[in-house]
Amino acid sequence: MSFLRSTLQWNALAATLFLLTIAASGQEPTPAGQAPSAVEPAAPVVPKSYPQSQVQAGRDIFRQDCSFCHGRDAGGGETGPDLTRSKLVTQDVDGDKIGPVVRSGRPDKGMPPFDRSEDQIANLVAFIHTQQTRATTRTGGRKGVDVADLQTGNAEAGKQYFEGAGGCAKCHSPTGDLAGINSRYRGLELEEQMLYPKHAKSKVTVTPASGQPITGTLAYRDEFTVGLTDDSGTYRSWRTRDVQYKVDDSLNAHVEMFPKYTDDDIHNLMAYLQTLR
After folding, report:
1. What percentage of the chain exceeds 90 in pLDDT?
2. Contact indicator for 212, 188 with CB cutoff of 8 Å
3. Secondary structure percentages of the chain, helix, strand, coil, to 5
4. Residue 125, exposed/middle/buried by CB under 10 A (0-12, 13-18, 19+)?
5. Of 11, 66, 112, 182, which is most buried with the most CB atoms under 10 A?
């Protein structure tokens, strides 16, 4: 009796596991004596192709307006990101995302707006998408850095370095100027901001002949003129020969940190900054 009971229990368990497997897969069980139907494989996604004349026209516009920052092949330049690895480009459909960015620009990231016609935008879209397709289908020789490449550090260790030995907390706050920084900058762009902030604002104190110092954010400086924006948002400027001025460069602290960082410090800080969403 014990052997029979064990056999029945085992058969019930096997049947239950089989039904659970079928339920998890979303397939209906195959009736006895009937061959299982073949599962249709998902159709591969075929990148959209564009007429060569349109791609050529887009390339000419891109190299005139965009290559200075994004590189001649859209693979990234000195100040602009690699568009062939851009999430926005990947999600773009017939210019619905690229078009608004071109026309409105991104002033917070140093990109000016461009007044372009519908046809010009369509040509730009054709060129950028074609470049992305070429880059993603090319084997080997990967250009650029994935976000995942910069996620190898220890966030807790990075936080401790930020608050302690690194001295970052003296000037920055995770709930102040750095709040949500990982939603504004991603991957390599975030690391560049950490090591050498492109958009850092320097304070300047100008002392005119009257002797009353005026402090604000440095807005302009060359050998002839120094200008600032004061706390009220008013722009003021002077001839350099008429005043004395001192620039408190906020980049200096970052530059001074370069020889002090270890590889672990950089990886850990990056991991911590990526938690500030």
Report:
1. 38
2. no
3. 50, 10, 40
4. buried
5. 66
- Residue 254's pLDDT is what? 83
Q: If residue 226 lies in a helix (H) or strand (E), which one and from where to where?
A: strand 225-229
Determine the Cα–Cα distance for residues 147 and 258; give it in Å rounded to an integer.
22
The string of pLDDT tens digits covering residues 53-95 is 999 999 999 988 898 888 888 888 767 888 988 889 999 999 9
pTM for this predicted structure: 0.46
Mean pLDDT of all residues in 113-138: 91
Answer whether residue 109 shows pLDDT above 70: yes
- List all residues 6 or more positions away from 135 whose beta carbon is below 8 Å from its beta carbon: 75, 84, 85, 143
Which domains are assigned to the chain?
Answer: 52-138 (1.10.760.10), 148-198+253-273 (no CATH), 203-249 (2.30.30.100)
DSSP track, 204-220: EEEE-TT---EEEEEEE
Query: Confidence band (pLDDT; 50, 70, 90) for 2?
Result: very low
- Which amino acid appears at position 260 of this protein? K
Q: Nearest-5° angle of CA 114, CA 118, CA 122? A: 95
Helices (H) and strands (E) in the chain — how many of each?
Answer: 11, 5
Q: Is 103 helix (H, G, I), strand (E, B) or coil?
A: helix
- The structure tokens listed for 83 are 């568009």
Q: Give the pairing of strands 225-229 and 235-239.
A: antiparallel
